[in-house]
Amino acid sequence: MSSTYHQIPSLVYQRDVLPQPVTALSFDPVSDILWSGTNSGYVCANYTPRGLRGVHYPVGGHLAVKKISATDTNVIACGVAGEGIGAWGKGGVNAWYFKPGNQITTFSDKPTNASTIAVSTGASELIFLNAQTGSVLRRTQVPSILTHLHFTASQSYLVSGDADGWIRLHDPREATTRSHGSNAIKAHLSGIQGIEATSTLLYTIGLGIRQGRPYPDPLVKIYDLRTLKALPPIPFSTGPAFITRFPNRPSTLAITSNQGLVQIVDSSNPASNEFHQLDAPSFISSVAASPTGAYMAFGDSDGAIHLLSAAEDEAMLPFNGFEGKPLDWPDAPDALPDVNWTKSTPLSTIGMPYYDSLLLSSWSKDFVPSNMYFPPPTKIPQQVLSSIKVNDSIAYATLPKELRGRRNVVATAPRKSGGRFRSGRTRYNDSEPVTPTYEYNPEVIPKCYRKVEIEYSKFGVEDFDFGFYNRTSFSGLETHILNSYTNPLVQVMHYTLPIRRLAKSHITTDCPREHCLLCELGFVTRMLEDAHGTNCQASNFCKTVGVLAQMHNAIELIDYGRESTELNYAHMIQIFHRFLIDHLSSEGNTFPHNPVLLPNLGPADVLSPAPAPITQLLGIDAKNVIVCQSCHAVREKENMTHLVDLTYPVRRLPTNDPAHETDFTSILRNSLLRQTTHKATCQTCKQFATFESRRSIRSRDLPPLLAVNAACHNEDTHKFWRDQRRTTFLKPRIELRGHIDGMDDPETVVYELRAMVVQVVEKDAHSHLVGIVKVPEAEESDPEPWFIFNDFAVQNITEEEALSIPSSWKVPAIVYLERVDVCQRLDFSGLPDKMDRTILCRDTNIAMNRDPRAIKHEPLRPEELPKPGTLIAIDAEFVSMQQEETEYRSDGTKKVIRPARLSLARVSVLRGDGPKEGVPFIDDHIHTSEIIVDYLTEFSGIKFGDLDPSLSRYTLTPLKVVYKKLRLLVDSGCIFIGHGLSKDFRIINIFVPPEQVIDTVDLYYLENRQRRLSLRFLTWFVLNETIQMDTHDSIEDALSALKLYKVHLQLEAEGTFDKKLEELYREGRQYNFKPPAPPGQQQSTTPAPPSGTASPMPQIAIGRGAFLPQPQFGGPGNHYPLNAVATPPFFPIPGPNHHGYMQHNWRNR
């Protein structure tokens, strides 16, 4: 055996998708096993130095394993969050489990010649247990909470270390401190991290204090156990984190740092040292030494166990140095009997398993229901029987008022849930009667408030019939994205016209922020404006919410999609409301160049610039007047806030005191002025006095918009909002007055209720949020302009229904009010309203190592800037940011819970006409700061590093810049040509009006065939070109779509397109609508047209060569409409694409 350790291969369990940090290690004294504890609370056996995975069992609790101690017969362990300590057999069967009633802080190893272990608890208690049975032997109180326990080698003392840095010696026979000599010493200033002891020496490591903070003490301190006198310490400059004594060498220690530096030193000869640096990529979290000292194990935070071995390089010694007891492997099942199977072998030969008791499925008749869905009729209520009348053996009675509601409803089998899909629209009757939007029972949630969920067919989310849930001209927002709980607040912001104007104006500016909520809100409002009832999604806005919440450590705002039914979305949306307004205020602030929106502020002044636009709309600029009740000294302090949090009176007793009025106007005014009292020392009278604080603001200074957080978090506050005697708590209009110099301002201002967000609480189900909005666009044409936005379900409701809070299922969260006399006079002329069109002429790039040979686009020249009707071809590639979440049922079917989340990775836009027709002017790869789960290289052509600014060789651009370019093209009235654009636009999160979209997947489509053709097949059959051979390329796909459109125009002009399309479908069926693999694929990217017997395709009178008449491309003047720069002949000669574009794309279209 060599005297120097060397590192051998680490133990890593390859099937761990999410490896857990190794928090505890212990070598088995009698078997070839290394026991490890994980951060998730499991103990695992690792057999032999090769790391064969063995038994795996939990120790209690869901947090890390705190400590493991392997004995001859059992494995003793406890967890950080466990209720006690237990012992398990080597096969994983629990032997005993002790619950002390308090959390266990640590326990000692079992001494060699004893069966006792010591356990300490969080109640400053020391307990001695029988290691074989777990029974309590002795209990005693200790001065402080112990964090380390260790028996000395001679078992004379039990050494303890506490969180204050004290070392104490205890008599294990009586569980008391040592009665003779010194029994305690302050070893470290801030805590003990490790203890080791021999018969006469004690070694400790711990924490010191530097600048008021704990830091690792760079010394291993040594004490004489007989006198507790300090001996010369052992220096360890990097800070010791673990200390381990070798069992076979009592004076030799292994000192380990968190970074993996190991020092092996003999305390009797400190000059003799060995240093080893572990090849560990992460921090060391646990250390153990084998009984013979042949191995040392180090667990790290990535779930790997690193091993140092003192054996020869080729030798493989057992962990404990000898063969030891055999390993406990799981019992192998009996082999199946061999059956010589023939046609005459009876089935009874196979045999059936034997059961000695009845199976659970063997129900008796008493348990089998006679009729599962039709219970016996309910009893007739007594109030009906008491008023019953009989006439000709027919009994009848008047239905009492309290029983009125839905009647004569027959209980039927539960209706099978199923989504409404466009592909199955013929199965539904759209003229079916509409379910009432309300019911007589106020405890029943109306249909328009109930939670709606997107379901997925085999055709994806695009097949879901959103139109069934929204028959209005106002668009809803989809829900299958994270943080979509913000949808109602986004709708409220959109239909609050002043905020909409600010957001739309902000997207025309050159905003430097990569993640900007005001930009994303502006993009969403533009999308909702253009959609006119088509469903939209705020995916970019929701993604920005998650990014900013993490950046500002506002984790409570992130919706992970796995919340429990107890989650209070009303509280969550109110926190996000404040977060959003604060960000809108800072992101839209261009101080000192903010435009003046309020008419009473006058023109902008250099000496007193206007505040941020959001502050002008929502800011409550008041003074806090603080009065000492002892000497009546008055102090004023400026106070600016954007939101009003409602505060409610403590009691609802009848009183004439206006401060205790319980109507909405009084509660809102009292919350606005917010009168409070507190105690402090007055600087004037120098007494500890009571102070009264109250806001002071003039009525005319109240903001144009009042944003109110309802703060309705319990039953008492919700009672204020409930309808009383057919009157609602909320009113369509309210009058507010300010407070000046201790008196009410005689002037009043009128506020109109515009919108609110409410939480719908369903019993035993997840709650959700809906928005109730008075839509400005509907006020002129609709007598009832109130609409409920329940995510993608939108419905018109009455004002009475909007204001009503009938029961506890409807919880108000946010209320928006608009000042009537000011909002109509707001001046938005100072806001920018046009986007800089020259962004299309700039080559935007953030890649540091862009390869000039990879630049395939030419930005537009100023004279080429698009006009309404300009043709452009577009295609995009995407990468996966989140895998699809699927639920598999027991019957073999599956349900998509949440689809895969894709993100834009590359977009290419080509000129559709002009002298440079077919030449790209946008070819941007999109930089993303999120983790990419799958690059989808086969379908996108995107590889690792292509979206990294430091590695990419392509043109790399931030997402927001690319989105602005596309937004500008939409606003300019460009006509987008592409293949399968609906999905591209959905993932890009932009709405393009249908009249601006030409999709070749629809051009080359016969409705009666019910099959859409892929771009690859159309390009091969119509253009006689082969694309998407290895991967896909967005430039190539966009160019192919452009050529297909030009062919469509030519055939339409000749009047032969319909005939050719029929031929295309008829002949495409023979190829299964897929281009055949051409012979010699490596040499030629375009297969020759079929000819003779050597062709794999049959001879057809009207083949690919006859889709267009060839003479049209023969002589001069009969060229294909695309020019020579962008377009090859309609059926080019076999050979590579002469444009030199790489052949890639994302979809197998």
Automatic annotation (TrEMBL):
Domain USP positions: 475-820
Entry-linked SMART domains: EXOIII, WD40
CDD domains, alphabetized: PAN2_exo
Region of interest: Disordered: 415-435, 1070-1099
Activity control, per UniProt: Positively regulated by the regulatory subunit PAN3.
Bias type Low complexity, positions: 1080-1096
Enzyme class: hydrolase
Keyword terms: Cytoplasm, Exonuclease, Hydrolase, Metal-binding, mRNA processing, Nuclease, WD repeat
Chief location: cytoplasm
Cofactors required: a divalent metal cation
An example Gene Ontology CC term for this record: P-body
Assigned protein family: Belongs to the peptidase C19 family. PAN2 subfamily.
Free-text comment about domains: Contains a pseudo-UCH domain. This ubiquitin C-terminal hydrolase (UCH)-like or ubiquitin specific protease (USP)-like domain is predicted to be catalytically inactive because it lacks the active site catalytic triad characteristic of thiol proteases, with residues at the equivalent structural positions that are incompatible with catalysis, and it cannot bind ubiquitin. It functions as a structural scaffold for intra- and intermolecular interactions in the complex.
Function: Catalytic subunit of the poly(A)-nuclease (PAN) deadenylation complex, one of two cytoplasmic mRNA deadenylases involved in mRNA turnover. PAN specifically shortens poly(A) tails of RNA and the activity is stimulated by poly(A)-binding protein PAB1. PAN deadenylation is followed by rapid degradation of the shortened mRNA tails by the CCR4-NOT complex. Deadenylated mRNAs are then degraded by two alternative mechanisms, namely exosome-mediated 3'-5' exonucleolytic degradation, or deadenlyation-dependent mRNA decaping and subsequent 5'-3' exonucleolytic degradation by XRN1.
Subunit composition and interactions: Forms a heterotrimer with an asymmetric homodimer of the regulatory subunit PAN3 to form the poly(A)-nuclease (PAN) deadenylation complex.
Protein name in the entry: PAN2-PAN3 deadenylation complex catalytic subunit PAN2
Protein's organism: Lentinus brumalis
